[in-house]
Structure formats: C-alpha cells, structure tokens
Design brief:
mainly alpha
Length: 86
Amino acid sequence: MNTPIHIGEIIKNHLTEQKRSVEWLATLLGCDASALRKSLKKYYISTDLLFRISEFLEIDFFAFFTKKLSEKIKNGQYLPDRNVDY
C-alpha cells in the first residue's frame, strides 16, 4: 500500500508535542501564521521550508521520507524505470 506521508500533519504533531504553536514557528520563519497553517494542511511542502522547520524544531523531517523509501527498496516495491531519460 502506497500511503503518502502527510508531512504537514507530522509537523503539527511535533509542534503539539513540543508545546509550540504555529504562530511561534511562523515568527521564526518570518511568515504569516495563516499562510503557514495553509501549508501544513498539504501533504507536500518545499524542501527549503521543510529544512528550515527541521532546524527550528530540531527534527529531521526528511528522515520520514528516507525511511519510507528504504523500506520500499528493501521490500522490492521501488523499481524505477532505469531506461527513462529525466
């Protein structure tokens, strides 16, 4: 089953665990809290934003994707077409 990672929900959960608010994070990021809330509703956010959030929350959010990819490769579920030119 290929369930997507909802990184926005994961970030919100970690904010809650750390007793931090979206407003707190938005202030550190230098953005509007409502814009950040909107971004966190999405499954995907920019790598730059994810990196900055990882720094402020001191959590490697990229690791969630790396772990999923590693598991797919280990289980033979990741078989890219190596003949495709990108």
